[in-house]
Specification:
By secondary structure, the chain is of the alpha/beta class. The protein has 11 helices and 9 strands. The chain has one domain: Aldolase class I (TIM Barrel, Alpha-Beta Barrel). α6 links the parallel β5 and β6. The relative contact order is 0.14.
Amino acid sequence: MKRSSFLKLKLRETKFIARGLTSSKHPVLAHVIPMRRCNLACAYCNEYDNFSKPVPLEEMRRRLDKLADLGTSIITISGGEPMMHPQIFELVAHIRRRGMVAGLITNGFYLTPEKIKKLNAAGLEYLQISIDNVEPDEVSKKSLRLLDKRLQWLAEHADFHVNINSVVGGGIKNPEDALVIGRRALDLGFSATVGVIHDGEGELKPLSEREQRAYREFKRMSRQEYARLDWFQENLAQGKPNDWSCRAGARYLYICEDGLVHYCSQQRGKPGIPLADYTQADIDREYYTEKWCAPYCTVACAQKTALLDDWRNLLRLYGDSLRQFARGPAPQHPARPAAPAPAPVPEHAPPVKQSDAVPQVLSVE
Protein backbone atom coordinates (compact mmCIF):
# COMPACT_ATOMS: atom_id res chain seq x y z
CA MET A 1 0.00 0.00 0.00
CA LYS A 2 1.40 3.40 -0.97
CA ARG A 3 2.23 5.72 1.92
CA SER A 4 0.01 8.45 0.48
CA SER A 5 -2.93 6.03 0.34
CA PHE A 6 -2.17 4.85 3.87
CA LEU A 7 -2.17 8.39 5.25
CA LYS A 8 -5.43 9.28 3.50
CA LEU A 9 -7.07 6.14 4.88
CA LYS A 10 -5.90 6.87 8.43
CA LEU A 11 -7.21 10.42 8.21
CA ARG A 12 -10.60 9.10 7.07
CA GLU A 13 -10.58 6.60 9.91
CA THR A 14 -9.80 9.31 12.43
CA LYS A 15 -12.75 11.35 11.18
CA PHE A 16 -15.12 8.38 11.45
CA ILE A 17 -13.84 7.49 14.93
CA ALA A 18 -14.38 11.07 16.09
CA ARG A 19 -17.89 11.00 14.66
CA GLY A 20 -18.59 7.69 16.37
CA LEU A 21 -17.41 9.09 19.69
CA THR A 22 -19.66 12.13 19.53
CA SER A 23 -22.83 10.31 18.50
CA SER A 24 -24.24 6.81 19.09
CA LYS A 25 -27.15 7.39 16.69
CA HIS A 26 -25.65 5.79 13.58
CA PRO A 27 -24.08 2.46 12.52
CA VAL A 28 -20.30 2.38 12.50
CA LEU A 29 -19.86 -0.82 10.49
CA ALA A 30 -22.12 -2.93 8.31
CA HIS A 31 -21.36 -6.31 6.79
CA VAL A 32 -23.24 -6.81 3.53
CA ILE A 33 -23.66 -10.14 1.76
CA PRO A 34 -24.04 -9.82 -2.02
CA MET A 35 -23.78 -13.58 -2.52
CA ARG A 36 -24.21 -16.51 -0.13
CA ARG A 37 -22.66 -18.97 -2.55
CA CYS A 38 -19.07 -20.09 -2.01
CA ASN A 39 -16.58 -22.25 -3.89
CA LEU A 40 -15.42 -23.82 -0.61
CA ALA A 41 -17.04 -25.82 2.21
CA CYS A 42 -14.97 -25.18 5.35
CA ALA A 43 -16.10 -27.50 8.14
CA TYR A 44 -16.44 -24.77 10.78
CA CYS A 45 -18.32 -22.31 8.53
CA ASN A 46 -22.10 -21.87 8.58
CA GLU A 47 -22.23 -18.85 6.25
CA TYR A 48 -22.35 -20.37 2.76
CA ASP A 49 -24.36 -22.47 0.31
CA ASN A 50 -23.71 -23.89 -3.15
CA PHE A 51 -26.72 -22.62 -5.06
CA SER A 52 -27.56 -18.96 -4.33
CA LYS A 53 -27.66 -16.43 -7.13
CA PRO A 54 -25.85 -13.09 -6.75
CA VAL A 55 -27.99 -10.22 -5.52
CA PRO A 56 -28.67 -7.95 -8.55
CA LEU A 57 -26.48 -4.87 -8.79
CA GLU A 58 -29.34 -2.37 -8.60
CA GLU A 59 -30.71 -4.01 -5.45
CA MET A 60 -27.26 -3.93 -3.87
CA ARG A 61 -26.95 -0.25 -4.74
CA ARG A 62 -30.28 0.45 -3.03
CA ARG A 63 -29.07 -1.33 0.10
CA LEU A 64 -25.78 0.55 0.12
CA ASP A 65 -27.65 3.83 -0.37
CA LYS A 66 -29.88 3.00 2.59
CA LEU A 67 -26.85 2.26 4.78
CA ALA A 68 -25.28 5.55 3.71
CA ASP A 69 -28.53 7.37 4.56
CA LEU A 70 -28.45 5.77 8.03
CA GLY A 71 -25.00 7.30 8.50
CA THR A 72 -22.92 4.12 8.25
CA SER A 73 -19.17 4.78 8.26
CA ILE A 74 -17.68 1.49 7.02
CA ILE A 75 -18.99 -1.23 4.71
CA THR A 76 -17.37 -4.66 4.58
CA ILE A 77 -18.44 -6.92 1.73
CA SER A 78 -18.49 -10.56 2.76
CA GLY A 79 -20.19 -13.82 1.87
CA GLY A 80 -20.22 -16.66 0.88
CA GLU A 81 -17.46 -15.64 -1.45
CA PRO A 82 -18.02 -12.04 -2.63
CA MET A 83 -15.46 -12.25 -5.45
CA MET A 84 -17.90 -14.60 -7.21
CA HIS A 85 -20.33 -11.69 -7.61
CA PRO A 86 -20.11 -10.54 -11.25
CA GLN A 87 -20.32 -6.83 -10.32
CA ILE A 88 -18.05 -6.85 -7.27
CA PHE A 89 -15.96 -3.94 -8.57
CA GLU A 90 -19.06 -1.81 -9.13
CA LEU A 91 -20.16 -2.52 -5.55
CA VAL A 92 -16.83 -1.34 -4.15
CA ALA A 93 -16.96 1.79 -6.29
CA HIS A 94 -20.51 2.59 -5.14
CA ILE A 95 -19.48 2.34 -1.48
CA ARG A 96 -16.74 4.89 -2.12
CA ARG A 97 -19.07 7.17 -4.08
CA ARG A 98 -21.33 7.32 -1.03
CA GLY A 99 -18.41 8.39 1.16
CA MET A 100 -18.02 5.17 3.17
CA VAL A 101 -14.87 3.12 3.82
CA ALA A 102 -14.84 0.02 1.58
CA GLY A 103 -13.60 -3.33 2.86
CA LEU A 104 -13.71 -6.87 1.52
CA ILE A 105 -13.37 -10.30 3.13
CA THR A 106 -12.48 -13.03 0.63
CA ASN A 107 -11.01 -16.52 0.63
CA GLY A 108 -8.54 -15.21 -1.94
CA PHE A 109 -8.87 -17.90 -4.60
CA TYR A 110 -10.39 -15.59 -7.21
CA LEU A 111 -7.65 -12.96 -6.92
CA THR A 112 -5.48 -12.36 -9.96
CA PRO A 113 -3.17 -9.43 -10.79
CA GLU A 114 -5.86 -8.02 -13.10
CA LYS A 115 -8.59 -8.25 -10.45
CA ILE A 116 -6.35 -6.71 -7.79
CA LYS A 117 -5.75 -3.75 -10.10
CA LYS A 118 -9.51 -3.45 -10.65
CA LEU A 119 -10.04 -3.39 -6.88
CA ASN A 120 -7.44 -0.59 -6.73
CA ALA A 121 -9.32 1.36 -9.38
CA ALA A 122 -12.66 0.82 -7.64
CA GLY A 123 -11.24 2.33 -4.44
CA LEU A 124 -11.01 -0.67 -2.11
CA GLU A 125 -9.34 0.29 1.18
CA TYR A 126 -9.18 -2.95 3.20
CA LEU A 127 -8.96 -6.60 2.27
CA GLN A 128 -8.80 -9.58 4.61
CA ILE A 129 -8.06 -13.21 3.85
CA SER A 130 -8.38 -15.86 6.52
CA ILE A 131 -5.86 -18.67 6.00
CA ASP A 132 -6.52 -21.70 8.16
CA ASN A 133 -3.63 -24.09 7.59
CA VAL A 134 -0.38 -24.67 5.73
CA GLU A 135 -1.67 -27.69 3.82
CA PRO A 136 -5.32 -28.16 2.78
CA ASP A 137 -7.33 -30.83 4.58
CA GLU A 138 -10.93 -31.90 5.11
CA VAL A 139 -11.56 -29.02 7.53
CA SER A 140 -10.42 -26.21 5.24
CA LYS A 141 -8.93 -25.68 1.78
CA LYS A 142 -7.85 -22.13 2.72
CA SER A 143 -4.21 -23.14 3.01
CA LEU A 144 -0.98 -21.22 2.62
CA ARG A 145 0.24 -23.58 -0.08
CA LEU A 146 -2.80 -22.95 -2.26
CA LEU A 147 -2.92 -19.19 -1.59
CA ASP A 148 0.72 -18.11 -1.43
CA LYS A 149 0.88 -17.06 -5.08
CA ARG A 150 -2.16 -14.83 -4.54
CA LEU A 151 -0.44 -13.27 -1.54
CA GLN A 152 2.59 -12.47 -3.69
CA TRP A 153 0.30 -10.81 -6.25
CA LEU A 154 -1.26 -8.72 -3.49
CA ALA A 155 2.16 -7.65 -2.21
CA GLU A 156 3.11 -6.57 -5.72
CA HIS A 157 -0.09 -4.87 -6.88
CA ALA A 158 -2.46 -3.96 -4.03
CA ASP A 159 -2.92 -0.29 -3.16
CA PHE A 160 -5.08 -1.14 -0.15
CA HIS A 161 -4.43 -2.50 3.32
CA VAL A 162 -4.15 -6.29 3.43
CA ASN A 163 -4.65 -8.28 6.62
CA ILE A 164 -4.04 -12.00 6.83
CA ASN A 165 -6.02 -13.61 9.60
CA SER A 166 -5.09 -16.98 11.06
CA VAL A 167 -7.35 -19.00 13.31
CA VAL A 168 -7.18 -21.45 16.18
CA GLY A 169 -10.00 -23.63 17.42
CA GLY A 170 -12.99 -24.77 15.37
CA GLY A 171 -11.39 -28.11 14.46
CA ILE A 172 -8.20 -26.70 12.91
CA LYS A 173 -5.77 -29.62 13.22
CA ASN A 174 -2.39 -27.90 13.58
CA PRO A 175 -2.58 -24.67 15.60
CA GLU A 176 1.12 -24.06 14.95
CA ASP A 177 0.21 -23.41 11.30
CA ALA A 178 -1.04 -19.98 12.45
CA LEU A 179 2.56 -19.03 13.25
CA VAL A 180 3.82 -20.04 9.80
CA ILE A 181 1.00 -18.11 8.14
CA GLY A 182 1.55 -15.05 10.32
CA ARG A 183 5.28 -14.94 9.59
CA ARG A 184 4.62 -15.20 5.87
CA ALA A 185 2.11 -12.34 6.04
CA LEU A 186 4.57 -10.10 7.89
CA ASP A 187 7.36 -10.97 5.44
CA LEU A 188 5.14 -9.77 2.61
CA GLY A 189 4.42 -6.47 4.36
CA PHE A 190 0.86 -7.26 5.47
CA SER A 191 -0.64 -7.08 8.93
CA ALA A 192 -1.24 -10.42 10.63
CA THR A 193 -3.90 -11.31 13.17
CA VAL A 194 -5.16 -14.44 14.88
CA GLY A 195 -8.68 -15.23 15.97
CA VAL A 196 -10.45 -17.81 18.10
CA ILE A 197 -13.24 -19.34 16.04
CA HIS A 198 -16.43 -21.24 16.73
CA ASP A 199 -17.23 -24.69 15.40
CA GLY A 200 -19.73 -25.54 12.63
CA GLU A 201 -22.62 -25.20 15.09
CA GLY A 202 -21.56 -21.69 16.07
CA GLU A 203 -20.40 -22.86 19.52
CA LEU A 204 -17.21 -21.76 21.22
CA LYS A 205 -15.03 -24.32 22.94
CA PRO A 206 -12.05 -23.41 25.17
CA LEU A 207 -8.71 -23.83 23.44
CA SER A 208 -6.57 -26.82 24.31
CA GLU A 209 -3.18 -26.27 25.93
CA ARG A 210 -1.50 -26.75 22.54
CA GLU A 211 -3.84 -24.24 20.88
CA GLN A 212 -3.26 -21.70 23.65
CA ARG A 213 0.52 -21.99 23.24
CA ALA A 214 0.26 -21.27 19.52
CA TYR A 215 -2.15 -18.40 20.16
CA ARG A 216 0.14 -16.71 22.68
CA GLU A 217 3.24 -17.18 20.52
CA PHE A 218 1.39 -15.51 17.64
CA LYS A 219 0.58 -12.55 19.88
CA ARG A 220 4.26 -12.18 20.78
CA MET A 221 5.24 -12.37 17.12
CA SER A 222 2.81 -9.80 15.75
CA ARG A 223 2.44 -6.58 17.72
CA GLN A 224 0.64 -4.45 15.13
CA GLU A 225 -2.61 -5.89 16.48
CA TYR A 226 -4.64 -4.50 13.63
CA ALA A 227 -8.26 -5.64 14.08
CA ARG A 228 -7.42 -7.62 17.22
CA LEU A 229 -8.93 -7.36 20.71
CA ASP A 230 -6.40 -8.95 23.05
CA TRP A 231 -8.46 -8.98 26.22
CA PHE A 232 -11.52 -10.35 24.41
CA GLN A 233 -9.52 -13.05 22.70
CA GLU A 234 -7.59 -13.99 25.83
CA ASN A 235 -10.80 -14.72 27.71
CA LEU A 236 -12.28 -16.64 24.79
CA ALA A 237 -9.13 -18.74 24.47
CA GLN A 238 -9.63 -19.85 28.07
CA GLY A 239 -13.37 -20.34 27.71
CA LYS A 240 -14.12 -17.36 29.96
CA PRO A 241 -16.94 -14.85 29.36
CA ASN A 242 -16.42 -11.17 28.51
CA ASP A 243 -18.29 -8.39 30.29
CA TRP A 244 -19.44 -5.90 27.65
CA SER A 245 -22.56 -4.40 26.09
CA CYS A 246 -23.17 -5.60 22.54
CA ARG A 247 -24.58 -2.87 20.27
CA ALA A 248 -25.35 -5.12 17.31
CA GLY A 249 -28.38 -3.91 15.42
CA ALA A 250 -27.28 -0.36 16.09
CA ARG A 251 -23.52 0.23 15.82
CA TYR A 252 -22.94 -2.99 13.86
CA LEU A 253 -25.33 -4.37 11.23
CA TYR A 254 -25.23 -7.64 9.31
CA ILE A 255 -27.22 -7.48 6.07
CA CYS A 256 -27.91 -10.89 4.57
CA GLU A 257 -28.47 -11.66 0.90
CA ASP A 258 -32.22 -11.27 1.43
CA GLY A 259 -31.76 -7.70 2.60
CA LEU A 260 -32.64 -8.36 6.25
CA VAL A 261 -30.86 -6.77 9.21
CA HIS A 262 -29.40 -9.27 11.71
CA TYR A 263 -27.24 -8.88 14.80
CA CYS A 264 -24.38 -10.80 13.19
CA SER A 265 -23.56 -13.88 11.12
CA GLN A 266 -24.10 -16.14 14.13
CA GLN A 267 -27.45 -14.62 15.18
CA ARG A 268 -29.29 -14.50 11.89
CA GLY A 269 -33.02 -13.94 12.31
CA LYS A 270 -32.69 -11.28 15.01
CA PRO A 271 -34.12 -8.69 14.58
CA GLY A 272 -34.78 -9.85 10.98
CA ILE A 273 -36.18 -6.51 9.79
CA PRO A 274 -35.83 -5.54 6.10
CA LEU A 275 -33.06 -2.98 5.68
CA ALA A 276 -35.41 -0.89 3.52
CA ASP A 277 -37.69 -0.49 6.55
CA TYR A 278 -34.96 0.01 9.17
CA THR A 279 -35.30 3.32 10.99
CA GLN A 280 -33.64 5.40 13.66
CA ALA A 281 -36.15 3.94 16.14
CA ASP A 282 -34.79 0.44 15.37
CA ILE A 283 -31.21 1.64 15.92
CA ASP A 284 -32.15 3.27 19.22
CA ARG A 285 -33.99 0.16 20.44
CA GLU A 286 -31.25 -2.31 19.52
CA TYR A 287 -28.55 -0.10 21.04
CA TYR A 288 -29.98 -0.88 24.47
CA THR A 289 -31.20 -4.44 23.81
CA GLU A 290 -29.26 -6.98 25.84
CA LYS A 291 -27.88 -9.84 23.74
CA TRP A 292 -27.74 -13.18 25.54
CA CYS A 293 -24.84 -14.37 23.37
CA ALA A 294 -22.50 -11.47 24.21
CA PRO A 295 -20.37 -13.11 26.96
CA TYR A 296 -18.96 -15.76 24.60
CA CYS A 297 -19.19 -13.81 21.34
CA THR A 298 -16.45 -14.44 18.75
CA VAL A 299 -17.55 -11.67 16.34
CA ALA A 300 -14.73 -9.14 16.66
CA CYS A 301 -16.49 -6.56 14.48
CA ALA A 302 -19.41 -6.37 16.89
CA GLN A 303 -16.98 -6.06 19.80
CA LYS A 304 -14.92 -3.28 18.22
CA THR A 305 -17.85 -1.10 17.29
CA ALA A 306 -19.43 -1.49 20.73
CA LEU A 307 -16.23 -0.36 22.39
CA LEU A 308 -16.52 3.05 20.75
CA ASP A 309 -19.12 3.68 23.45
CA ASP A 310 -17.01 2.17 26.23
CA TRP A 311 -14.49 4.76 27.35
CA ARG A 312 -12.79 2.31 29.68
CA ASN A 313 -11.52 0.22 26.76
CA LEU A 314 -11.37 2.75 23.94
CA LEU A 315 -7.67 3.53 24.29
CA ARG A 316 -6.87 -0.17 24.54
CA LEU A 317 -8.72 -0.72 21.27
CA TYR A 318 -7.20 2.07 19.19
CA GLY A 319 -3.84 2.64 20.84
CA ASP A 320 -1.97 0.25 18.55
CA SER A 321 -3.73 1.59 15.46
CA LEU A 322 -2.64 5.12 16.34
CA ARG A 323 0.94 3.96 16.92
CA GLN A 324 0.88 2.25 13.54
CA PHE A 325 -0.29 5.54 11.99
CA ALA A 326 2.65 7.35 13.57
CA ARG A 327 5.12 4.76 12.23
CA GLY A 328 3.64 4.64 8.75
CA PRO A 329 2.78 1.55 6.70
CA ALA A 330 4.84 -1.59 6.89
CA PRO A 331 7.37 -1.92 4.06
CA GLN A 332 6.30 -4.09 1.16
CA HIS A 333 9.02 -6.73 1.13
CA PRO A 334 9.58 -8.77 -2.00
CA ALA A 335 8.28 -12.30 -1.88
CA ARG A 336 10.66 -14.96 -0.66
CA PRO A 337 12.18 -16.92 -3.52
CA ALA A 338 11.49 -20.17 -1.68
CA ALA A 339 7.73 -19.60 -1.49
CA PRO A 340 5.50 -22.67 -1.75
CA ALA A 341 4.84 -23.69 -5.32
CA PRO A 342 1.27 -23.41 -6.66
CA ALA A 343 -0.63 -26.57 -5.87
CA PRO A 344 -1.97 -28.88 -8.56
CA VAL A 345 -5.58 -28.38 -9.54
CA PRO A 346 -7.83 -30.51 -7.28
CA GLU A 347 -9.64 -33.31 -9.08
CA HIS A 348 -13.03 -31.75 -8.38
CA ALA A 349 -12.04 -28.43 -9.97
CA PRO A 350 -12.77 -27.51 -13.60
CA PRO A 351 -9.74 -27.41 -15.90
CA VAL A 352 -8.12 -23.96 -15.64
CA LYS A 353 -4.61 -22.59 -15.90
CA GLN A 354 -2.32 -23.93 -13.18
CA SER A 355 -1.39 -20.49 -11.81
CA ASP A 356 -5.05 -19.45 -11.54
CA ALA A 357 -6.47 -22.64 -10.09
CA VAL A 358 -9.52 -22.07 -7.86
CA PRO A 359 -10.58 -25.03 -5.71
CA GLN A 360 -14.23 -25.84 -6.35
CA VAL A 361 -15.35 -27.96 -3.42
CA LEU A 362 -18.90 -26.88 -4.17
CA SER A 363 -20.37 -26.77 -7.64
CA VAL A 364 -20.32 -23.39 -9.36
CA GLU A 365 -22.29 -24.47 -12.39
